[in-house]
Design brief:
By secondary structure, the protein is α/β, with parallel strands linked by helices. It contains 12 helices and 8 strands. It has helices at 19-32, 50-56, 83-87, 99-104, 109-121, 134-138, 142-153, 159-163, 183-200, 203-208, 219-226, 243-253; strands at residues 7-12, 39-44, 62-66, 91-96, 125-130, 166-169, 210-213, 233-236. Strands 7-6-5-4-3-2-1-8 form an 8-stranded parallel beta sheet, with helices on one face.
């Protein structure tokens, strides 16, 4: 598949997998995906597994991501993880503002913007998540919600840093529900987000930004989703917990 931007497919393991289970999955993926050059591959295990997974994928084509990061470098922030701690394990990417954290931890766009700046300051790459709920979509609020989240969560970034930022569109109504946005719905949302980025920065920057789709991505729908002009990869949840399904999503996307 010849696309303007290189696909980036990341597996978000969420709060799953012990260290031993994480190692098994990482080792399987390293073998299954060894020949893939056309896609940037990222795995995001729980914090407890970062150290061992980092060793397991050393010298492979798989990059390591974290599921969250504090905006602070150190200090009295119980339970938080700083950039320096992640860099010890050769983490390259950090998911920020996942819909679950927006919902359960009440993370705001302003907080996510601070964290995006901190991720860049540490020479890491943020994957910033945005997306509307079912109620918001049914009320005709999709564009308003997306523009508010994109502008708020990416506020303060320079053009250069924005070009190195990944955006993940997650229709909240399609996460873990088995529902998937149609390819037309996904493309519509991605094109809208790129338009907002063009207004915030400029068209050249917007063209460089990779926008992932996240929401019940499976091997069976990966090819059609990735073929859309503005869909530049996937942020995969449940289907990334099993080596075969995650590998098939990646192979089917090429």
């Amino acid at each position: 598949m010849n696309k303007e931007r290189k696909l980036i497919i990341a597996g978000n393991w969420k709060m799953n997998k012990t260290v031993a289970e994480s190692l098994d999955l990482a080792r399987s993926l390293k073998i299954d995906l060894a020949s893939v050059k056309e896609v940037d591959i990222v795995v995001c295990p729980p914090f407890t597994s970062l150290s061992e997974v980092s060793k397991a994928i050393l010298d492979s084509n798989i990059r390591l991501g974290a599921q969250n990061m504090s905006e602070h470098n150190a200090g009295a922030y119980t339970g938080e993880i700083a950039a320096g701690m992640l860099k010890e394990f050769s983490v390259r990417y950090v998911i920020l503002g996942h819909s679950e954290r927006r919902q359960y931890q009440k993370e705001s766009d302003a907080l996510i913007a601070l964290r995006a700046a901190a991720v860049h300051a540490a020479s890491l790459k943020p994957i910033v998540c945005v997306g509307e709920t079912l109620a918001e979509r049914e009320a005709g609020q999709m564009e308003k919600v997306l523009e508010t989240q994109v502008r708020g969560s990416l506020a303060g970034l320079s053009k250069e840093l924005m070009a190195e930022t990944v955006v993940a569109y997650e229709p909240v109504w399609a996460i873990g529900t088995g529902k998937t946005a149609t390819t037309a719905q996904a493309q519509e949302a991605h094109a809208f987000i790129r338009g907002v980025l063009s207004k915030m920065f400029d068209e050249a920057v917007a063209r460089r930004v990779r926008i992932q789709y996240g929401g019940s991505v499976k091997p069976s729908n990966a090819r059609e989703l990735m073929s859309q002009a503005d869909v530049d990869g996937a942020l995969v949840g449940g289907a990334s917990l099993e080596a075969r399904s995650f590998a098939d999503i990646i192979k089917n996307s090429i």
